[in-house]
Design brief:
Elements lengths: L6 H28 L4 H9 L18 H12 L3 H21 L2 H12 L4 E5 L15 E5 L2 E12 L6 E14 L5 E11 L5 E3 L13 E12 L3 E2 L5 H37 L1 E2 L2 E2 L4 H30 L4 H26 L9 H8 L10 H11 L5
Parallel strand pairs: 1-4
Antiparallel strand pairs: 2-3, 3-7, 4-5, 5-8, 6-7, 9-10
Helix pairs in contact: 1-3, 3-4, 3-6, 4-5, 4-6, 6-7, 6-8, 7-8, 8-9, 8-10
Amino acid sequence: MNIELTEEHQRIVDEVHDFVTTVVAPAAYEYDTQRRLPMEIIAQMGERGLFGLPFPVEYGGSGRDYLSLCLAVEQLARVDQSIAVTLEAGVGLGAMPVYRFGTDAQRDEFLPMLARGEALAGFGLTEAEAGSDAGATLTNARVENGEWVINGSKQFITNSGTPITRLVTITAVTGENTRPDGSIKKELSTILVPTPTEGFTVEPAYDKVGWHTSDTHPLTLKNVRVPEANLLGERGRGYANFLKILDEGRVAFAALCTGAAQGCVDEAVAYAKTRNVFGRNIGSNQYIAFKIARMEARAMSARMAYYAAASKLHAGKPFKKEASIAKLIGSEAAMDNARDAAQIWGGYGFLNENTVARHYRDSKILEIGEGTSEVQLMIIARELGFEA
């Protein structure tokens, strides 16, 4: 695997880094305290083609590869995880299912506006009783007079209630199958629900510990009717398809984790070089320098892990294990670096106006979202041949 970025990849890194430095960073504290997704910044991201990075030009995309998306997400996450996850989820969970499994008509209708950042989409998977155990899904859908009639509820759905949300892909039980042993298995399918649709209710946003500007809502579906043609992919393949989406999404999520970890390194280095105590900067103390060196090692390890997963993805090789390893390593690196950066910053690290404080609040969800650390360990163990 070549770990050197191409000129094109480096250009993306440089351009997004400049955007983060000049546009995102100066405004981050203000919209974090307001707990709002800054649509003006999302619009600029769309104008720069960030939402269309991995999609073909014919669908309004940039025709780049998945690593390009990951590199953009990493740069955003250095300063603001909420903005980074808006892009990561908007592409990986919102638009990518339509691109991977949609019909030509579905792609033509939804992908151009999603790729241009003119609209956002959510992925309605999680429920109160169906988190890590997605097979426990209770939301159901039946066909009636050429329409799907959907009833149920979803939780923790990103990008589901923004002013430009135009679509949520819903997982629902659409029937039952009998196994050879006589047991019953739920048939899960995915269905596209445009917004607004009668009976589709976006409930009030959550009051979260972190990710204050990320749009996250519970959803209620009461006799929601959409055309039968809104089935996404084959009926009964919803479970298999969303697993593929999650595997791919974890690579970009690992990039987000890496950006958060690196952002903590950047802040710790800057502070340690300028904070003077007893006549010298605190970075001259070996204890502090070594702590930051370990932070840098974590960030680099996380970066190499998601590069490796992206490399296999691009090559068309199995990458499930590598994606889970990258997500596990990256989320732990982000959480550990956030704790160490806050300690180095001392009392200032406890003030929300500083980036390290936001990383300290934001990073815990990285060990939970898009598959908990325990789920990643389970996947890795299974890929190694263990049943546990």
